[in-house]
Amino acid sequence: MSDRTPPARGPLRYSLVLALLVAALLAAMVAGLALGQVRVPPSQVLDIVTGRAEPSPFRTIVLDVRLPRVLLGAVVGAGLAVVGTVLQALVRNPLADPYLLGISSGASAGVVLVLVFGLGGGLGLATTVTMPAGAFAGSLLALVLVYALARRGGQLTGARLVLAGVAVAYILTALANLVLVTSARREHFQEALYWTFGGLGSARWDLLPLPAAVLVLGTGLLLALARPLDLMLVGEEGATVLGLDASRFRAAVFVLTSLVTGVLVAVSGAVGFIGLLVPHAARMLVGASHRTLLPVVALAGAAFLVVADLAARTVASPQDVPVGILTALTGGPFFLWLLRRRPEGAPS
User: Fold this and answer.
1) What distance in Å separates the CA atoms of residue 214 and residue 153, rounded to the nearest whole number?
2) Cα 260 off chain centre by
3) Residues 200 and 71 sit within 8 Å (Cβ to Cβ)
4) How far apart are the C-alpha atoms of 95 and 278, rounded to whole Å?
5) Are residues 273 and 327 in contact, defined by beta-carbon separation less than 8 angstroms?
6) Which pTM value belongs to this model?
7) 3-class DSSP assignment, residue 248
8) Rounded to whole angstroms, how far apart are CA atoms 320 and 139?
9) Rounded to an integer, what distance in angstroms lies between the CA atom of residue 116 and that of residue 178?
10) DSSP state of 319
């Protein structure tokens, strides 16, 4: 990571940033509940959510269809942004992201294997237990492979990291496609498309507890590890001199980030580039200290995906565009800009 990261801002500025992000997230959620094929007045949305509205078709649309989707979008967006921030610190590379490093592809491959081989004995158990477990195993495998391939002679360079991530993503995606092609059930193709493109269309109330719990616990643990994460920004040797067992710490946090990513991908598919876009914008606002950065990143990531999903539902209405396509259209140019802006040989 570059040493030219802006310094942390004062407490008044930080409080203002948090307040504005909370307001932006609430506004995005209200818009997500109000807009769609059927428009619901914002005032009525608030009455419905607070329980003051009488039973009506609007109430069913808001509470049973849109609210779980908006909440899931907030959870997934916050989690992916937090994971991207932490990965960038662990490998000291501003291009690190669950999608670009192949972690999301690994999680998607794990989900496909669960779907095809019918692990879990039923859709309910597969959705709540075995699919997240398969996604976690796939994401952890991908991360281990990428790190092993990119690290050579004790050095970890940005170019090798990205190339290894792309290669591992292609391999795991090809493996998942091979399993699908040889599967006896043709409907697996349609089911797998959801995890390939990423989307929130299958959001239900029963899907929310696990990713929400993993997000809260994972972010809480990472906040507790804010100082070691800051130390990782100076490099492995510098962190070791300052008293951190960098290799063991990196391995433990890799497992934690893989768990969070796997659970999120199991419910949303491979939504890319949130973990790349949001951390860079947040650092411009509050600096690089993880104790102040992670809450900002979580709020910004949540608001970003809620807005992106609203656009996915309305840009080609009544067609529901997978939100992963829109985030890729946004994040792809930003990734190219980062590559062009970053000088050759800059520290990773």
Assistant:
1) 35
2) 9
3) no
4) 12
5) yes
6) 0.87
7) helix
8) 27
9) 11
10) S
**Contact (Cβ atoms closer than 8 angstroms) between residue 282 and residue 293:** yes
Q: How far apart are CA 145 and CA 292, in angstroms?
A: 31
Alpha helices, DSSP H, located in 61-197:
67-91, 103-117, 123-125, 131-150, 158-181, 187-197
300's CB contacts (< 8 A; 6+ apart) are 21, 81, 278, 281, 282
Express each pLDDT in 24-63 by its tens digit: 999 999 999 999 888 998 889 988 998 887 888 889 999 9
Strand partners, 152: 155
Tell me the pLDDT tens digit for each residue of 189-243.
766 766 677 888 888 898 899 999 999 999 999 999 999 999 998 887 888 888 8
What phi, psi does 216 have (nearest 5°)?
-65, -50
Distance CA 4, CA 19 (A): 26
**CA Rg value for the chain:** 20
- 96 Cβ neighbours under 8 A, 6+ residues apart: 84, 87, 88, 90, 161, 275, 276
Place of tokens 């091979």: 178
Phi, psi of 312 (to 5 degrees): -65, -30
Max intra-chain CA distance, the chain: 67
Name the phi and psi angles at 34, rounded to 5: -90, -35
d(Cα 206, Cα 128) in Å, to the nearest integer?
Answer: 8
Q: What DSSP character marks residue 63? A: I
- Give dist(CA 13, CA 33) in Å, integer: 30
